[in-house]
Amino acid sequence: MDAVRKTRITLRIVSMVLLTILLAVVPPFLTKAPIMNTFYYEDEAQGYAEQYTETLRWSHTGGIAAVFALNLVFFFLNEKKGDSGQVLRRRNRLQWWLNLLVILLALGAMIGLRIGIDPESWIELYLSIAALDVAIMLLPYYLFVLLAFYFWYFCMNAAPATNCALRDPLARKIDNGIKRAAQTR
Description:
elongated, transmembrane
């Protein structure tokens, strides 16, 4: 394997890892305070709010990590096989469907964990029914779906294997710069 290809692969993997860490860790901390404020200020309600934010944090992180793991497997598979044409197109289509399935399963797990906090009553009993409060409480679900789809887009368009086409303009510019720098040496 030549040095240019190693550099391109390393850059794509590092960018995927950094984006995974950013998308998995930061959003749950940004949504914790607004969610805690939507619950009533009684001790029992605040206890449920704390459990709710903790389970959402871990399920959000797990969902983003699952999307990352799936895309990393396909990245290495595409690098190893080095296919093109219909074979690569079929594998990318499979990756597309599996990404969608993983995101929907992770979203379902996030919704299901809400019942595990208090199986005897709905968690919505501990917050006001104002539309803004309900929207804030559902914010982690929307945020997870948006960030997971963005990460999916990034992995498919900005950090695919070296035998796949780069469809993101910024990634293409960086990749072309690496190739040109290697040619001038």
